[in-house]
């Protein structure tokens, strides 16, 4: 409970005033919104029309899998003529026609054909077609593998339906290869801006801890009947809570108010940002432990935030920088967070960004440990 009281105090002192709320919540949301509006297709949800004449279960499973993997809105048409009109009138970006016998052809060892309608080439259409081919290949390969182990075709089909059902529950995962498609510039730029504001908020909360050290408030807390780990945990939880609230509010605002598609599930995007938040806390705590003059903290942390954000690709892609700077970017957590976001947006799963999350976690463990060791409560401010 002592840790929670300390955490609540950190939160109150950091954003307890209206000006602080404006700087750390309203301003980041405004900047990210501008990036999304100027660079992204924040306007409308991508809509896809489809007609499913398949009498078996696999046609419906195909549509469900496409909707889950793309995040697009799928609208059913009555027949092929209605499907064509949806595309011609530009009410849908593309149309899919699943013919009769799709399930039976797939379970007989054939690769079924799905008719494709598109008025013009678009980024959304390319992504959808690529996902469609992936799903058909995946279903065909899965059935062939199961049928080689289960001679009875009915039992093999039942086993395949079970595999697809478990895959939708994320109990069985398919291996997804990077499609090589270019990621919307608005995704990496908006996430870069969010990363910068997260670091600014974390720096401000760490400055509150330094005020306690300078005013000997921290020293008095350590002398009180409160364990030292509770004090450190309270300070850590307060800063972590502030960063988490900022991340969630901005992500939810961009997704559900601006209706911007990041091309990845919210949970995966939030997980990457939380891992970066831990690394940012480590950086700020390490810097706070080394600086002895309270007045120099803001300057030193600004000199760290801006160059590392530039080096890590928050303002421009790392690929356009000279080769030696691209190699130097590996030592800042911003680069690993943005790269993980871009890979998820390009179609990779969490299994493909485990290395990135592990490196962010390593940043956090080393820097938080170092910061906790050098941030001594007994030290006072020096000139």
Please name the defining characteristics of this protein.
4-stranded mixed β-sheet; mainly alpha; 383 residues
Description of the structure:
- Helix content is 67%, strand content 5%.
- Strands 2-1-3-4 form a four-stranded mixed sheet, sandwiched between helices.
- The longest helix is centred in the middle third of the chain and has 30 residues, at 185-214.
- The chain is mainly alpha-helical and 383 residues long.
- Residues 170-181 have low confidence and may be disordered.
Provide the spatial order of strands within the biggest beta sheet. 2-1-3-4
Low-pLDDT sequence parts: 170-181
Q: Kindly state the mean pLDDT as a whole number?
A: 75
Query: How many distinct beta strands?
Result: 4
Strand content: under 5%
Oligomer: single chain
Task: Classify the secondary structure makeup into a structural class.
Answer: mainly alpha
What is the ordering of alpha helices and beta strands?
A: HHEHEHEHEHHHHHHHHHH
Largest sheet: 4 strands, mixed
What distance lies between the first and last C-alpha atoms, to the nearest angstrom? Answer: 36 Å
SS summary, helix count: 15
> How large is the radius of gyration?
26 Å
Q: Helical content, roughly?
A: 55-70%
């Amino acid at each position: 409970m002592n840790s929670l009281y300390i955490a609540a105090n950190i939160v109150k002192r950091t954003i307890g005033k209206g000006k602080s709320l404006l700087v750390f919540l309203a301003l980041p949301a405004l900047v990210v919104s501008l990036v999304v509006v100027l660079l992204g297709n924040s306007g409308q949800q991508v809509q896809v029309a489809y007609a499913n004449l398949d009498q078996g279960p696999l046609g419906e499973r195909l549509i469900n899998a496409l909707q889950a993997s793309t995040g697009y809105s799928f609208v059913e048409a009555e027949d092929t003529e209605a499907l064509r009109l949806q595309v011609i009138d530009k009410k849908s970006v593309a149309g899919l026609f699943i013919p009769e016998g799709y399930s039976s052809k797939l379970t007989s060892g054939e690769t079924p054909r799905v008719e494709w309608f598109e008025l013009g080439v678009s980024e959304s259409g390319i992504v959808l077609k690529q996902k469609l081919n992936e799903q058909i290949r995946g279903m065909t390969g899965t059935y062939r593998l199961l049928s080689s182990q289960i001679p009875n075709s009915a039992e093999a089909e039942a086993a395949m339906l079970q595999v697809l059902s478990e895959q939708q529950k994320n109990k069985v995962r398919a291996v997804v290869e990077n499609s090589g498609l270019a990621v919307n510039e608005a995704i990496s730029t908006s996430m870069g801006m969010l990363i910068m504001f997260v670091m600014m908020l974390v720096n401000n909360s760490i400055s509150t801890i330094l005020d306690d050290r300078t005013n000997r408030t921290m020293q008095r807390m350590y002398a009180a009947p409160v364990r030292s780990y509770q004090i450190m945990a309270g300070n850590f939880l307060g800063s972590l809570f502030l960063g988490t609230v900022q991340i969630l509010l901005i992500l939810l605002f961009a997704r559900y108010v601006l209706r911007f598609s990041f091309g990845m599930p919210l949970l995966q995007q939030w997980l990457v940002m939380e891992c970066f938040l831990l690394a940012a806390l480590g950086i700020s705590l390490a810097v706070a432990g080394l600086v002895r003059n309270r007045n120099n903290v803001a300057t030193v942390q600004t000199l760290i935030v801006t160059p590392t954000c530039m080096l890590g690709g928050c303002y421009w892609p790392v690929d356009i920088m000279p080769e030696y700077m691209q190699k130097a970017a590996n030592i800042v957590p911003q680069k690993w967070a943005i790269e993980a976001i871009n890979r998820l947006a390009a179609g990779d799963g969490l299994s493909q960004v485990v290395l990135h999350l592990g490196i962010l976690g390593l940043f956090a463990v080393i820097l938080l440990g170092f910061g906790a060791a050098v941030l001594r409560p007994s030290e006072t401010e020096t000139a």
